[in-house]
Structures are given as C-alpha cells and as structure tokens.
Write a structure and sequence with these properties.
Low-confidence stretches: none
Order of helices and strands: HEEEEH
Number of helices: 2
CATH topology: Helix Hairpins
Number of domains: 1
Shape: rod-shaped
Oligomer: single chain
Number of strands: 4
Largest sheet: 2 strands, antiparallel
Helix content: over 70%
C-alpha cells in the first residue's frame, strides 16, 4: 500500500465515523422530541384533571353528573360525595382523598413532569448543537 493510499483512507475513515456519530445524534434528537411530546400530552391531561377537581368542588352532593367512560362516551351518575375523590396510588391500591389533597397531588405531578420536560428540552438542544457542529465537520470533510 502506498503512502498516498494510506493518506486517502484516513479522511474516508474519519468521514464514516463522523457520519455514524451524526446519524446517532440525529436519532437521539428525534427520540427526545417524541419524549417531550409525550410529556406534553401528560401535562395536558393532568391540567384537565386539575380543572375537573376545581369544577368538582362546585357540584353539590346528590347532583346528576356525566362520568366519562372513554373519549366521547359518558354515563349518567348521581354524585354521593362532592368533597372527596378516589385516587389510585399505585399497585391497584385506591384511597379516598379530599379534593384539595387530590389537587395538590396532581399539582406535584405537574411540577415533576415540567422539570423532566425542561431537562429533556435542554438535552435535546445540546444534541442539536452537536448535530450542527458534526454536520459542518462532515461538509468540510466531503469538500476536501
């Protein structure tokens, strides 16, 4: 192998390595975006729950209410106690909670998801910066 062939292989190998790194980072950015969107959906759902809890306080015990079974499907029911809700605390365990306590629990979840989402946004932004730098490096290597 001549010295010239060795020299031409080095930029080619570097180009391949940078390209692989670029593709991996690009995929990671897409994954961050998907996770951020999923967190956004969770936040929207939790905000709706929080609003529902506020509205629930305004309903009198014994009132007829609509209970959502699924998207756009409801059942009529009579509300026995408008001051409490039943909360799933995990592992199939249900507990009675006052509406204020349930709302506080939801607000804590919202704050926690906001922190996670902000962290993911920062990580995604850092990855985008790295992708941009790698893209510039790849363009230089290709043009050489």
């Amino acid at each position: 192998m001549t010295k010239e062939n060795k020299n031409s292989e080095k930029p080619q190998k570097e180009l391949q390595e940078k390209y692989m790194e670029f593709k991996m980072l690009e995929q990671r950015v897409k994954e961050f975006q998907q996770h951020i969107q999923a967190l956004e959906a969770q936040l929207n759902e939790l905000n709706e729950i929080s609003k529902s809890l506020v509205d629930m306080k305004k309903v009198k015990s014994g009132s007829e209410v609509l209970i959502p079974l699924n998207s756009g499907i409801f059942a009529k029911a009579k509300l026995e106690d408008s001051g409490e809700v039943i909360v799933n605390v995990g592992a199939g365990v249900l507990v009675n909670k006052k509406i204020e306590d349930a709302k506080e629990l939801v607000e804590k979840q919202i704050a926690e998801i906001n922190k996670i989402q902000q962290n993911m946004i920062e990580q995604a932004q850092n990855a985008v910066v790295k992708v941009t730098v790698l893209q510039e490096e790849l363009q230089k290597l290709v043009s050489e």
